[in-house]
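Hi everyone,

Forwarding the result from last night's run.
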Amino acid sequence: MQVLPEQEPIGLLVAATRRRIKQAVGRRVRPHGLSAQQFGLLVAIVEGEGLSLRGLAERLRTDQPTASRIATTLIRKKLVREEGDPRDRRRRCLRLTGPGRALAARVYPLVLELRGAIVGGMSPAERGALRNGLHKILQNMDRFEKGGAGLRAVSAGRER
């Protein structure tokens, strides 16, 4: 039985899309000694230098233990350093080191290339609709994880 594109499960498409993006990123950053996750954290620091680990985790939409593990690796590689926040002694900020800044300058053009490839051929309206749909999926999954209150993911064998 062949599944028509409009019948393909959305969760499967989201997972396949994530996997393909991660593979494409990995192939391009591996020669620079980075994993896809390390590249993502490095980019997040470039785009929001001085963020706390919590802020970076939120920006990357990951949990703090994962962000911490990746940050620790980048710190060991001497690409990132932790420093105190002068406004809040309890808060630690992540910043690029000299070598980290040099590497970021070499790999940042990949960010723009990848972001363009991801939305290539899509109109602004299509990009907006996709963003809205993905945000709704995230909200639905948050509700589902909290007990599924008010969710009916499948009705009469069809996704809504």
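The helical segments are 10-29, 36-47, 53-60, 64-76, 98-119, 124-145.

Cheers,
N.
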